[in-house]
Design a protein that fits this description.
heterotrimer, A mainly alpha (about 525), B mainly alpha (about 290), C alpha+beta (about 375), A: about 525 residues, mainly alpha, 16 helices, C: about 375 residues, alpha+beta, Immunoglobulin-like, five-stranded mixed β-sheet, 10 strands, about 40% helix, elongated, binds heme-A, binds dinuclear copper ion, binds copper (II) ion
Amino acid sequence: MSHSHAAHDEHHDRAPSGLMRWVTTTNHKDIGTLYLSFSLLMFFVGGTMAMVIRAELFQPGLQFVDPQFFNSMTTIHALVMIFGAVMPGFVGLANWMVPMMIGAPDMALPRMNNWSFWLLPFAFILLLSTFFMPGGAPAGGWTMYAPLVMQTGDAFPFLIFAVHILGISSIMGAINIIATVFNMRAPGMTFMKLPLFVWTWIITAFLLIASMPVLAGAVTMLLTDRFFGTSFFSAAGGGDPVMYQHIFWFFGHPEVYIMILPAFGVVSAIVPTFARKPLFGYSSMVYATASIAFLSFIVWAHHMFTVGMPLAGELFFMYTTVLIAVPTGVKIFNWVATMWKGSMTFETPMLFALGFIVMFTIGGFSGLMLGVTPADFQYHDTYFVVAHFHYVLVTGAVYSIMAAVYFWLPKWTGHMYDEKLGKLHFWLSTIFVNVLFFPQHFLGLAGMPRRIPDYNVQFADWNMVSSIGGFMFGLSQLLFVYIVIRCVRGGQKATAQVWEGAHGLEWTLPSPPPYHSFTTPPVVK
Amino acid sequence: MSGSQSASGYYVPHGSHWPIVGSIALFTLLGGFALALNGYGIGKGSMVIGVIFLLIMLFGWFGTVIRESETGMYNGQVDVSFRWGMVWFIFSEVMFFAAFFGALYYARHFSVPWLGGEGAKAATHQFLWSSFENVWPLKSTPNQTLFTQIKEVIGPWGIPALNTALLLSSGVTITIAHWGLQKNKRGQLNLFLFLTIALGVIFLFCQGYEYIHAYHELGLTLHSGIYGSTFFMLTGFHGLHVTLGAIMLTVILFRCLKGHFKPHHHFGFEGVAWYWHFVDVVWLGLFIFVYIL
Amino acid sequence: MIRRIRHRHFVAALTTLTGLLWSFGASADWTLNMRKGVTSISQEVYSLHMIILWVCVVIGIAVFGVMFWSILHHRKSKGAQAAHFHENTVVEIVWTLIPFSILIFLAVPATKALINIESTGNSDLTIKVTGYQWKWRYEYLDEGLSFFSTLEAKSNQARHLRSGVDVATVDNYLLDVDNPVVVPVGRKIRFLTTANDVIHAWWVPDLGWKRDAIPGFINESWARVEKAGVYRGQCAELCGKDHGFMPIVVVAKEEADYRKWVEEQKAAQAAALQADNPDREWTKEELMAKGESVYNANCVACHQTDGKGMAGVKPIAGSPVATGDVADHIDVVMYGRAGTAMAAFSQLSDAAVAAVITYQRNSFGNVAGDLVQPSTIKTEYR
Ligand code: HEA
Ligand code: HEA
Ligand code: CUA
Ligand SMILES: [Cu+2]
């Protein structure tokens, strides 16, 4: 270990090499790369499980897996996608971009940054190893509702501890981002000058710090209920299984905004760039993000409308839930207003951002429908819900990550990606993701419950359509990997600004940027 | 944030192997714990190895940071980064406790009254738990065969009140120690720091005594329904945090004895002091919501 | 047959893929929307659903319309020059207030509907519904009737991995039960839902709601079915391995038919009770025969037909419990094993418990040889 002032010392201004570089690195770009690669890997792991799900649901009748394994697939698919693909994806983007956007040399707490990342693989080893344990992998749904989750076999404590480690990792990552933004901004970079991606990430970090410990508490109670005789979630001892759901969703709902606020930031960076026009309503964007974050803490019970809450509770959570449409609408309108009278071009990042706006809104609309309590009595736990959250998660969160990768890849690698292939990737994905998820609305409305491996023949047709869409969407993602790898290997040289309409500190650095982003702080006017 | 804001003075450490050691340690520890809970013998061994690695990591990592700090590598901006880090870490701890306070609140205001036939769930009481009564502290659980029944709960005005006094005065002593540090009165610093630790340790002894008493004489255990569950999880996690805080204070005391910290540059001390105050405040919450109300 | 069906699906999928969504075959089931159902609640919910849906569609058309307009007209390739505005307080306030007022407009009927749904008072009869892994139990509290309802045998056979049965040949595959719950038309029925082991949810789409069945708690809901008929639903909360296989069938009958059904059930139940008399001495043959049927109705889902169990479920064959002390065996069956899927089966009659234990101790290669008499269960374990 070297104890020199890295930033002082010209000789150290390059990356160490070998495997240990990646294991011991404290550099925000290296760590960002690690996060993003890990996220891609987990996207494929989780996606493969989704393919098993779609294969089994291709036709009525059981063809490939037994019901227990099917439930494990659903459960682990969700945990891997959420905690392995989407969240690390956004943290990777933050690691790469936040220091460059605020004019800092690196993250505020570089060693802890390394630890945040290197906890993840170990957490997933714990989680994924459960497939080989007596009783199989957890199969109680990603929500881990008591008392069903208590029936998990040997996998149970591994599940709990994996969640604990993931929580520690997320909290440290979030603390780091807050410390970086609060403390490392270049002179003149006031809060109301921060790029929106940075703003959305501060607020996301706050959500993480406030909600992940609650999840840790919830799963700790599961652990003690199972092994140490407590009775939090058992009526026989004066507890309540529903209490688990309250605590879980107090975490769980902010969690879904953790997966969408950074996406809003990404889109807010891309749309103005390709509209060649400043973002409309910057300050209302900031306030809208903050309101969404605030509201996200008082809507949790909309996931549990059917548990039999008292009427007053149901009304309260209905009103707060639908209220979120207002600040979210502000964002959508601002993006549209940014495009209005712009001078638009449609490179791949812009296509993904536009896809995001349209399809996220569709997902938001179905969310609003779910938020209306009496209607949710019908929708709840059907494929309508599955359709809702895949629209906001896949065509929302995942699309924004892909948009961001196309947007910043030239900056990171110094090469342009293949624009033709990028567009092809977009169109294939967009066609098939709709073939995949849109029919699930119909299935849900027709009465197909979620989390079932087999169904009545009346649901056969749409399921087959959905599965075909799923396979094709999955295959299309191979193209993404190919494009990214090709771009990392080489390609047309990228300029510092990369995109004609790009503004901001990160575009003043050469592509690729130096190992320590800003060794002398830029002055922001 | 003064003139030292310039990034060229900002210390960015090069690679460190402590994080990966920490990850492996945590993995071995928790993986071992999981194995042990499933009844596999190797689990315990794995836990021991994990703890050893964790200790090595903590010593190594903090050792490095202390060394770097003492050799003046950190400027004011690094100091502020540490401060933000500590503040938000403590906030995350607050939210961890919030989950358990929330459970207590829910049990008292929803689940137990419902089981006792109040509010919206009259049928629950009528058909499932017709002999159950809603009283708090909850001494007899809805199903009396599955859980041990409590003879007596611990009232607030005995040991808990004493403990409150102990922790509150420890909050005072650490502040006096801090004043000593700021005025460079090292004797005052060391003495009051020692007193703080002593108060913390006495607190833990009292708590331990209370636990033994609860288990052996009162029938109040983790296994005695929701009262025991919330009681022991809240006070237990608090006790764990006091223990950690006391260990941290001890480290700080040794550093003070070695002459570390300067009147205007002593984040290590302050971070631990903040933590100690946080533990204090949690206790006040416990005292009110667990013991008194 | 199988090939024909596959072929039909394939063609159907292809037509969709090429965008010819509307040219599907006559037999295909391309349901798009929610059912109107047969209760006032379900109709209220349906119209609420349609209102929100149309509100969303209209807002969507407006927002996407503006967006696509500028995508088409404000593009660089058409020579569009970027304007420079980036704020307009009036516009921003307007587009905050409009959605807000739309929401208030939605909240009014939603609140009304909710208050109606939650008004469970003044009911004509009460049915207690208890979820078990993986079946339902119905108790008619006013009639003293009670029975279990499980997946109908043909579906149950077809549903297994590589069962060799084409599920398209099974009527109401996965949506049929052995004992449906029968209700009278036009009466306000109060449903009390609860569960024995894990959380389930009782859902019949035509009634317009679902309600969780939570162990240790009872939830109340109500329905007034307006049309005689058969209404099918499913468990709607993940409850373990066979969550997908615990359907619900509600048969709504005219008052007179309903009464008739109740009397028949009462008579059948009395006869069964007579046969299950716990006070008499049972022969081994009787116990074994009854035990087998109880086993197949209640235990086989987990312990399997060969008694070998499965992942996470201990085998009965060669089990130290099923071959050892009979008291332990009775204990497991009557009280369950906390923290595992093995629930208490004390809801079975004394004779059923005695029989299934006897059966387990003398089958699957177990040769404990001993008998358990119903009277033992009755006197020592109740
Ligand atoms: C990124 C993740 C994400 C996001 C952003 C959202 C956004 C929203 N979600 Fe979603 N949700 C999930 C992820 C997400 N959700 C997941 C994972 C689940 C399932 C969990 C599980 O059970 O496994 C779920 C489930 C879920 C439920 C529970 C359903 C059930 O189980 O019965 C509900 C109910 O209210 C809900 C509501 C909403 C609402 C109101 C929004 C709002 O934020 C949407 C707001 C947006 C808009 C409304 C569109 C744009 C607005 C305008 C154009 C303005 C004008 C509009 C109007 C006035 C209508 N969601
Ligand atoms: C960010 C989160 C995220 C993401 C990205 C996805 C992505 C996908 N999800 Fe999932 N999903 C959830 C979060 C997510 N999901 C959650 C929270 C649940 C609820 C779980 C629960 O009920 O507990 C769920 C549940 C869920 C279900 C319901 C299961 C059930 O109720 O039983 C289904 C069913 O279709 C499904 C499908 C898919 C598909 C097809 C994708 C696709 O987008 C995946 C595409 C990616 C790939 C396919 C990988 C890349 C490609 C290859 C590996 C190449 C090989 C390809 C082929 C062989 C074709 N998901
Ligand atoms: Cu019972 Cu799902
Ligand atoms: Cu939510």
